Amino acid sequence: MPLSKDFTHLREGIRKVLELMDCKDGNGFTECRDLNFILNFPTGYGKTTLSIELAKWLSTHSTSNFSRLIHVVPTRSLVEDIAKRSASLKYAVQYSFAPSELRSPNFLARFVITTYDSFLLNLYKASVGEPFSVHGHYDLPRFSIYTSLVHFDEFHLMNEGNSWTSLIGAINHLSKTGVNFVLSSATPNRGLEEEVINNAKDVVKVSVVRNYGDSVKNRECRGLGEEGEYECNAGKAKYKVVEVKDEVKVPDIDVTFIDQGDFSKYIDGRTVIVVNTVDKAISIYEKLRDLNPCLIHSRFKVSDRKKIDLDECQLIISTQVIEVGVDMSSDVMITEQAPLPSIVQRVGRLLRRNEKEGGKLYIWTSGDYAPYDKSEVDSTLNALKGNDVCLKDPYGCYGKKGYAEVMDNIMTKPEINRRLFEELDKISINPFLTRKDLDYLLDKYCTLTNSFIINLAVDKPDSQEDLIPFNGEMVDKAPLEREGNKVLAFFEKYGSDGSTDKVEVVEGYIEFRDWKDLCRKYRKVTYDRKILLGLKVKREYYDSKKGLRLK
């Protein structure tokens, strides 16, 4: 029976992907078409559903193409969110300090949910499950990857620096080794897509549209006879576009610009305020304390952040953390200026469930550009001033042009670090290169992504719930507990056999010159089999309602 017949209850776009995969029962194995996908679905369409439904199907089927599914996401919180939705499945997770009972460091489970960082480390021979071994069994997680269908979710968030180079390097290598993959995003960008296509093979882009032809505007494409199907050029490479007409109901969002930070006059019903830095979010929270707001950002203990029930909050103040993996809806949104992809992701939380036909978005032109590119922010503001861009559908609504067309015109194509790309390729294909060669590379680049995240803790952590994720590049601003030149720290201490099953958390000290030196030491194993888990911060700088303040 064809795969798509099992999933008639799903949305049209997801069913089309399954139809194109064309998995059919063969002699002992199910055979699927050798295709790779780029999915452009609106926010809230249910991209993750594709992985969950395929994982259910794989629990009773084996294919000649893949025997497991690896779902890769940008953040640990998103891993946990997908894990909750997959509670009925035999899934496993992999990220830093994941619960041992759910962990699959070698990616051997049928359904693995992991972060980009863990995926890339396993692909390039770090073997995250064996921190004490130079050679080890790094071929185990690589074997698991080579026998998987890999879903890179929210891949647009990997669009700069080391992140983009590492992702394109991974796609290039997976294509050469015959591993099928899916890349999904609600914010299509021609530059990103064409780089993927030129480093892959047999790529099909599936887009949910209102009218046939919407997704191939400003593309070099020709029709293939079937309505909504095209062959397109991306440089020297060709790819196929398949459009799916699905009348996705979206509200009409009215955009208004405001130039001052007194937000109380714009609050109406359930309101979300999104700003670009944690310190700014805390400051606004303190100003609006009388309105009983809820505050969410990245500098909370995991346990304290989980206690925040957003469904009970009428006023929510947030940072960019709301852009990914937060399933909530508001009546009104106030957002600080940001590039168009970020604005679109934020608006995905405005009338997410179509409670009204129209909604209000206020864009605060704060004049602060950090942490974004100034030219991309300015281009976004200019594009939105006419209030003629649909921020809820990539290809347009209510007579407004789609945000995909605007994004193509204003977003700059990220550069690839050719030296890093070539060094990763060598590690991928040379069987004699080991974890030590990756370590040499990381001594130079720190991480394979743009995010060097460290853990902070007020007290000795009993689990990941007690940790505070923190941007390692800002460590000099953290209120660390010090004794002279040494910083108090927590370490994972392993037994003499190096087993990861029994790990004790102990206190100790660490010295480092700057964040780059800390990055090197964060990965190193000490002579007595200890690995740095996190740094201790001063208790008086942490508040369960406001999170961690900087010194």
TrEMBL record:
Cellular component, GO annotation: cytosol
Gene Ontology molecular function, alphabetical: ATP binding; catalytic activity, acting on DNA; hydrolase activity; nucleic acid binding; RNA helicase activity
Record keywords, A-Z: Antiviral defense, ATP-binding, Helicase, Hydrolase, Nucleotide-binding
Coiled coil feature spans: none
GO biological process: defense response to virus
Superkingdom, natural source: Archaea
Name of one Pfam family that matches: DEAD
Protein name per Swiss-Prot or TrEMBL: CRISPR-associated helicase Cas3
